[in-house]
Amino acid sequence: MVTEVALSLDLAIILLAATVAGFVAKQTGQPTIIAYILAGVVIGPVVLGLVEVTELTETLSELGLAFLLFLLGIKMRIDEIRHILAPIVKISLPQMAAVAAVGTGTSLALGFGVTESIIIGLAVMYSSTAVVIKMLTDMGETTTLHGKIDVGILLVQDVVVVILLAVLAAGRPESPAAVATTLAVVLVLVAIITVAALAASKYALPAVFRRIADDKQIFFLVAISWAFLFVFVSSEIDLFLSPFGIEAYLSIEMGAFLAGVAIAQLPYSKELQDRVNPLTDLFVMIFLVSVALTLQASELLFYWQEAVVAAIVLMIGKFVIFFTLITWQRFDRETTFLGSLYMIQVSEFGVVVGVAAAAGGFVGVEILGFLTLVALLTMGVSVYFFAWGSALFERLEPLLERFESAETFTEEKREHSDHAVVVGYDDVTRNLLGLLEHHYEDLVVVDRRTDHIRELEEAGYRAVFGDVGSATIRKDVGLKRADFVLSSSDQLEIGKRLLRETGDETTVIVEANSPEDARALYERGANYVIRSVELSAERLGDYLGALLADPDAFDRVVEREVELMRQPRPFPDLHEQVEGELDD
Amino acid sequence: MAEMLTAVAIVFIVAGPFLLLANRYDLPGAPLLILAGVIAGVFIDEALALELAQFGIALLVFSFGVGIQLSTIETVLADSELAAIAQIVVVGSLGVGFGLLVGVPAGEAIYIGVAAALSSTIVATALLRTEIRSNLIQGRLGESIHFVQDLFAVAFILVVGAGVLELDPIVLQIGYGVVFLGAAVLVNRYLFDLVGRLASGSDELMIVGVVSLLVLFIGAAALVDVPIVVGAFAAGLAVRHDPAQYLGLFNGLDSIRDFFVAIFFVTVGALIVLPFVATGVAESVEKLTLVAGLVLLTVLVKPVVTAAILIHRGYEARTAALTGFSTDQISEFSLIIAIEALLLGLLTQTVFDAIILAAAVTMITSALTHRYNEEIYRWLADRGVIAGRHDKIDELSHVPSDLTDHVVVLGYGRMGSRVVETLEELGHPYVVVENDPALRDDVRFECEAYVFGDAMEPYTWEKANAAEARAIVSMTPSPVVSRRLLETRFDATLVLRAPDERTAVEYLDAGATYVAVPDLLAGEQLITYVEALLEGEMSPEDMRSAGLAELPPVRSTRY
Predict the structure, then answer these.
(1) ipTM score assigned to the predicted complex
(2) What is the CATH number of domain A2-44+54-403?
(3) Is B378 exposed, middle or buried (0-12, 13-18, 19+ CB in 10 A)?
(4) What confidence score (pLDDT) does residue A572 get?
(5) Which of B3, B23, B539 has the most A C-beta neighbours within 10 Å, making it the best mutation to test the interface with A?
(6) pTM here?
(7) Contacts of A565 in chain B (CB under 8 A)
(8) Architecture per CATH, A420-530
(9) Does domain B390-516 have CATH number 3.30.830.10?
(10) Tens digits of residue pLDDT in A30-81
(11) Inter-chain CB proximity B544 and A276 less than 8 Å
């Protein structure tokens, strides 16, 4: 039967289990990541043995990681991260060395052999990209200072893991020179792709995306196409280099991230975030479920006592190491505390390194089980520290104060509040912008057309490209904290959404297509509902009356209105004057 | 990288440039994705392409189901279900006949018939977006004809899923189909909002939940050997159509659909075995004959049949012709049906390829005919190929013979009816020109004088005695009609309606006396309110009361 080919039973079970677990987690107030991972443990070989890894789930998991990093890339505006690049490198390299040392030491103390301990050390030094970025995204903290530091460190770790995997894939390294060559090749490749991405972002992409940004669907698909181009080149780089006798590997994640960064520098990236987000959620979920699918219970639990001890030691060790290093770079205490607390887990890459090491004959499958268990345990625990991070910080703040350096690294924060938001740039809103700008220091206009955005920016207004139906855009313009919201979208669902998400104190003016819609919007608290068609009909009735009763009066008012129409600028209400004149 | 991921990467990398082309030349994306697939096919294994296509099929049909609002399905259908069904029967039979004529076995000729009969909702909706947004009749008609065709397609797949054309399995299949629909309605009515509440506002959980629902329905379909298409369609119906409540969910499903549907079109293209390149001359000629026949049936015969049926049903010649043009492409559902049939071994590669190639060709030509549809119609009408039926206009209209110095009101929508109200109050003679059958009763009941005809038809204006009118007030948002009125240069005062200031100035320059721009008026009125508000002369509550007072008392809607 056809259907069994594609939509395998495995995938169905994974989706259903994760959904049920996700809903349970939501209702009981637990993070959904935990639910997904646990769902994987339950349906996988460890407990029920219903599913195992198939090519399809593997593909979807890889897609999940690729999309997660692409999404992350889209959010990275270089202007906003440039100033923290140096501290990030200074933190991440010593951090990995220190954590690897702690990991190796702990393993030796737990009785593992020297090679095994070194591999374990190398495997546990990364924090989990999937968990950290997913949690940061869910909590809306990717663009906070600690969020950016964590993301930066994760990317440096990603480069290192790519190098390590390349070395492990080559089998036991023949000499330090071989390792150095691999390292050099990978770094050069990363540099080349970065330069290519940034050059494209500067010279090629603006023209292309300005053309297509007005077409929602093509815009989305071309962006995805762009991402896959980088994913493909990165992961198949071997294909391009082998004719030259060079052997090298790059990760899918690295390519996806750089593709995203190239797009992030364009003004159209905001809306894309919301388009990519659902796919990412779906695929990352499958990735999280499948973390626990690879191993049998006996392999996973072979060293369970050691794993529990190692997990505790590593979480504490990681926190202390991160805390020390971030403080050293003179970040403030909140940034340091949260930035460290979020990074205490062992990465899924640890498992990948374990797989490579087992395949290379460095360690046995039980070590792989040990690493997987440590990763699962630390991920599970760390997720709660995300949830409790701010509360913990408040409690511990007095204690942390003395670690903080006298002069801390700062960055200006910009958030809208008590401002005016205008949705849609058209004949309804255009003439109001001057008036609003006069009264509000901060005025943002959201529109979905590139030519409108350019027109607005040329006129000196702050314009955001995107669809207000998208949550990212609504958040970006600070809808919740706005004092005045005016929307000329006549889509009922948009009107309702704006009313739902604004405060009681906010003045909200929306547009409706029919008296029924208008009434529905008033019921939901609109301060005024624009009904352009009715209004126009009424005015036309008056004019027509004038035409039939007193053609000269009609000519006069029409002439004046036509004149005004030809020179667009804010103009006073003509309606009153027209009626006044007609009464004479 | 997994083999399948490589395939997906290739699909998108190849698709990118083709999509840029589509954007550059304002063509629909679907046919260019199919063409991209022809190239991607070189790199992608056929089994893998088929597997990936299945996801696209599921999502495509699922979104069709999601788009259906169970509560309003009757009003959509009432408009044109007979016309649509008649069109399917006539064009379908012609397609089967053609297939048999060129020597295709009866079992396969049915698929040629289906391919010829059904038109693409995705392509037509993209092309008709302006007409649909302005609520012009041809937009609405086209939409509902496509809707009926899509429903037919799902039913066809359900029946063909039996694999054999015998009564027992078909009855069983239909039985399962009914069970699936019943389950969908139950979920929609009773379960969906519960799921929504449990998700507590999390879009992620909502999306994951709905995707699980889809997988569940598909799994159930697979279990009882019903095509997954039917399961996916039922799952779509089960989703409560409430975009305001579940905005994040609907946006999310759009993304997921766009992603997989793009994969679908590319993989469909990848499944084509190119004539002459990969096959012998005899087979290639056979394939191309089929393609040519299908293209002719779709591009020429189908619009003619559709238009003829619509004219027969009482629609205006121009409306009928424009609606006919909007059906001149092969449906994505025909592609789905072709793939399913190919997999079941009911279709040979030659016929399959012919259907896919013809689909790609007609989807592109459809964009061209849509671009020049008014010109084509005019050309045909001027040569008397499509004759406006004066007797029909006469029969449906009521105009006093001594009507002069009157006002001609074009369009009896909300603005038009308000204008008529004023004229009645003033006791001034008028005549309403309308061509929407849905408004026929309103016009006949409420207006003293009216003409039922198309505004592009000279006879309509003759009938309304426009030459001796005092004023012509056109409330249609259609730019084609507005420009036509400007070209005709009646002596009367000409009042038009425009969507924006720029168009308004264009009309004024071309000779209009006055142009109503609803948005501009609304903006003006809003300024006074907002100014008063910001100056503190009016409180937000005052503004609200003023706005509420402007609302008309509750009465029946009209668009």
Answers:
(1) 0.84
(2) 1.20.1530.20
(3) middle
(4) 40
(5) B23
(6) 0.82
(7) 501, 504-505, 508, 515, 517, 520
(8) 3-Layer(aba) Sandwich (3.40)
(9) no
(10) 777 778 888 988 898 878 888 878 888 888 888 888 888 888 788 777 777 7
(11) no
